[in-house]
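Before drawing any conclusions, I needed to go through one protein's amino acid sequence and its backbone structure tokens, quoted below without any editing.
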Amino acid sequence: MKQILFATGNARKIAEASDTLKAYNITVVPIKLTIDEIQHTDPAEITKAKARAAYAAAGKPIVVSDTSWEIPALGGFPGGYMKDIGAWFVAEDWLALMARHSDKTIYCHEHVAYYDGHELQHFVSSYKGTFIDEARGRVDPDESFERVVTLYGGQTMAEQLAAGLVASAGESLDHWKQFGEWYRDK
């Protein structure tokens, strides 16, 4: 069985990667690293830079993941700036921002990048969601966004987590499947 270091301390991300990659005979070994995350308008560039920084810190082949959000009614906002905006906004801020827009569409882009000091590979999958009109569910205060968006069905991500479900379950793990197919054959 192959192993891959995964630079994250996020239990949900570890579970998603581990559950998906075991089908490819890949064991995920989480490692917590402190790395600076660049700011960029292109979320793929953020993820690639994060993979390079993680490799520099760990000194071994490594994989990272990152999520970005695109709201068409807001010209693609917040894009690559989701991490900072998500920390600043509470659920009610998102609701107020979207209240005057009839298009409540949002796209989640899930990124995975691998770097081994020479080869950089990037994988992405995208999913369509919808803003709702009222916050539902309870999560960590830093994740208020998960209370105002339905992405994988009629429940918010916060409601799914509260029910013990992985918020990005099933078909939403294409980014890890893409990585698994590539890495298995590497």
Remarks:
- The domain at 2-184 is CATH 3.90.950.10 (Maf protein).
- The first strand starts at residue 2 and ends at 7.
- The longest helix spans residues 43-58.
- The chain has a mean pLDDT of 90.
